[in-house]
Design brief:
The structure is a homodimer. By secondary structure, chain A is of the alpha/beta class. Among the domains of chain A are: 49 residues, RecR Domain 1 (Helicase, Ruva Protein, domain 3); 92 residues, Dna Topoisomerase Vi A Subunit, Chain: A, domain 2 (3-Layer(aba) Sandwich). Chain A has seven helices and four strands, in the order H-H-H-E-H-E-H-E-H-E-H. The radius of gyration of chain A is 22 Å and the shape is globular. Chain A starts with 8 loop residues before the first helix and ends in a 7-residue tail after the last helix. The mean pLDDT of chain A is 91.
């Protein structure tokens, strides 16, 4: 037995499984496994069951494709939301982040990823054709592209723009600039260049 | 829905359960939950089942109380190990760390914790009486105390020493000093003081 060998096959199996999670190495996995051994059986079962149930029974909104326990999610089913504005995001975390601002009253379209040839993710793997259909059905005045300001985000923005440009809908993209509380001297050149190019009239 | 609200009760339940793990906050838990959603059902089931099995079926060695799938662990059952030397450690991770040095050929005694009044852990919660019995049964020449050099470790060392001092067994404690590759100027005063007090003849 050396540092990488465990005194129990059960422990080794659990550590191996836990360390498959992203960002969790074998040392952290061992720490978590030993923590679980000290918890009540009911608590450990509750954790394991919640993970299984999540994977087995998760559903998605038929309109915006966000994670949802109902056919139509709470946002799409909310009559006070502006259905004519669609904000296109990569995943549920982005929906939660934008909802957290309490600034947005429109609806979403969750792509379920971003075009990334390096990772083998193409347009067909994402909810892009369903977005085009949604816009073509009418009643949409604006599509806001709110993807990450990365090469992949730009590629995806461009692809969606090409698909939607003939529909006549207004297509916008979230502002790029210097982040709140960022120090100018540490801001990268691309961001600073874009912030300068995208300058707006000063308001008091 | 705001930043702390999830679009699905299943997702929320899983995130809540995962974030109960030590060192995992709700943001990391959400990232892990969404990662699991992208994995095959079989992989997620394998993770959940391994955690359950670990907790339900784990066993401990009847001699040294280390985690073991058999009544007597591999180390205690190994005829080439020196059964007359017992190294007292807090938990299985310490056993793995010492085994990793490839320097120790004796056996272990796993306390399953450390005396910590702050956390409500007293001597009766640990495998201390079983250690005393083991020594009293005879055949033991040395007990090495290898607990962490903390207040709790010192307290536990002292308690065990008092319990064993009448048995006549040799009781030793692992050396405390400056760690390999540590810079002297950043070493704390207690460690440096102990390293000076515990100085040994220079050997080429």
């Amino acid at each position: 037995m050396n540092h990488s060998q465990y005194p129990s096959a059960l422990l080794q199996k659990a550590v191996t499984e836990i360390s498959r999670l992203p960002g969790i190495g074998s040392k952290t996995a061992l720490r978590l496994a030993l923590h679980l051994l000290r918890q009540d059986v009911a608590e450990v079962d509750s954790l394991a069951d919640s993970i299984k149930e999540l994977r087995h029974h998760i559903g998605y909104c038929k309109v915006c494709h966000n994670i949802s326990d109902t056919d139509i999610c709470e946002i799409c089913g909310n009559t006070s939301r502006d259905k004519s504005t669609i904000c296109v995001v990569e995943n549920v975390r982005d929906v939660m982040a934008i909802e957290g601002t309490l600034q947005y009253k429109g609806v979403y379209h969750v792509l379920g990823g971003i075009i990334s040839p390096m990772d083998g993710v193409g347009p067909a793997d994402l909810e892009i054709s369903s977005l085009v259909e949604r816009v073509q059905q009418g009643g949409i005045s604006e599509v806001i592209l709110a993807l990450s300001p990365t090469m992949e985000g730009d590629t995806t923005n461009f692809y969606i723009y090409r698909k939607l440009q003939d529909t006549g809908v207004r297509i916008t993209v979230i502002a790029r600039g210097v982040a709140q509380n960022d120090e100018l001297q540490y801001t990268d050149e691309v961001t600073l260049g874009r912030a300068l190019a995208g300058r707006t009239p000063f308001k008091m």
